[in-house]
Amino acid sequence: MIQRVLTGITTTGTPHLGNYVGAIRPAIAASREPGVESFFFLADYHALIKCDEPARIERSRLEIAATWIAAGLDTERATFYRQSDIVEIPELTWLLTCVASKGLMNRAHAYKAAADANLAAGEDVDAGITMGLFSYPILMAADILMFNAHRVPVGRDQVQHIEMTRDLAQRFNHLFGQGRELFVLPEANVDERVAMLPGLDGRKMSKSYDNTVPLFEGGAKGLRDAIARVVTDSKLPGEPKDPDSAHLVSIFEAFADDAERAAFRAELTAGMGWGDAKAHVVKRIERDMGPMRARYAELMAHPERIEETLLEGARKARLVAAPFLAELRDAVGLRRMVAVAAPAAAAKAKLALPSFKQYREADGKFYFKLAAADGRVLLQSDAFESGREAGQCVARLKAEGIAAVPDAPVAHGVGVSAQDVADALTALAAQ
Ligand code: TRP
């Protein structure tokens, strides 16, 4: 069976080593596996949630797109697109929003962290929180469900969002699937080994900690300068170092194979100085990054080529999204107005019985009528002074059937035969 792998990167910043090692590289590797169909995209609608600087969004989209391509993504084989080019995604977001429980969204980490920070600061719980931030997991669910992805490679911080996606998918399937699995329930793929690439200070490499190593920015010198700033202990050259407590080693190991890892560790234990060790790390990263950096520069000089690639990707993605969304619209009842069955009327005509209806008119008198299942009036009563009298007459007709009709103050409806009335009363009596 074809496995669909899907992931996106929010386009708010300049890609760093952590994005490459944690997201782009493993995703590209997955896209090369046999039997895998991959969908990779720029999450630019997500970017609007945390960034209101248009120039930064514009720049970041270009840089992240160029990074994917420079890193070796085969855009013929994978479907590579911008989220905002797929008009079906916001529409699916709405369909999912209508089945999303607010309580579930209250528990989403991104929202909860912001709300908790407000409370801690003595502010209103929702101060400065947009509906975009609140609904962020629903948009993410739409990204994933639009293409019915099986596997979603993400960092550990995103696992909750995949769980929410499964929850929404299940609920939608239950409400509208009529026994069919409209949506596949996706699995998060977290590679523990690389999910935690440490930054300069040893915490997770992240734009928000300002501890990142740039991927291409600043060229080879930028890389060298950043690695020079990686925090180490103060052991001197000649002193044995503990490879397990050095995050410089973790950074190295994100690029090295087993033999290279063993050799590097041995040299550190034998007393290699941190300066030499850093030069070694730079050289190893540069071996992978050097060729990519040249491709990246070439692409950045030709944004129109990237644009073309993304438009082609959007075309491919919409070939999947448009027919699926049509199916989903149909499932919820957003249908073309042809051959529309009146709600339940068809079923009602088959199942429903004739019935007596009692009512009071503007003249203050009481009446009843016997209506056929399709609403046709079979019998119409004269006026009664009280509801009780009308009720007694109905009871007699029900109990005695057609035999009670000649004595009752009732008239047949237009075009109604005695047989029609007899059949209706028999059907009622059989109840
Ligand atoms: N929210 C993700 C992040 O910040 C990015 C993202 C958006 C995503 N939509 C997605 C990742 C769908 C995987 C699948 O990292």
Structural commentary:
- It is built from 17 helices and nine strands.
- By secondary structure, it is α/β, with parallel strands linked by helices.
- The strands form three sheets. The chain has a four-stranded antiparallel β-sheet with strand order 6-7-8-9, covered by helices on one side. The protein has a three-stranded parallel β-sheet with strand order 1-2-3.
- Helix 4 (88-97) crosses helix 7, helix 10 runs antiparallel to helix 13 (274-300) and helix 11 (247-253) packs across helix 13.
- The longest helix has 30 residues, at 303-332.
- The radius of gyration is 34 Å and the shape is elongated.
- Bound molecules: tryptophan (TRP).
Helix percentage: 40-55%
CATH superfamily of the largest domain: HUPs
Total DSSP helices: 17
**How far apart are the first and last residues' alpha carbons, in Å?**
53 Å
Instruction: Sum up the overall morphology in one term.
Output: elongated
Our count of domains comes out at 3
CATH fold label of the largest domain: Rossmann fold
> Which regions are unreliable across 5 or more consecutive residues at pLDDT < 50?
none
Order of helices and strands: EHEHHEHHHHEHEHHHHHHHEEEHEH
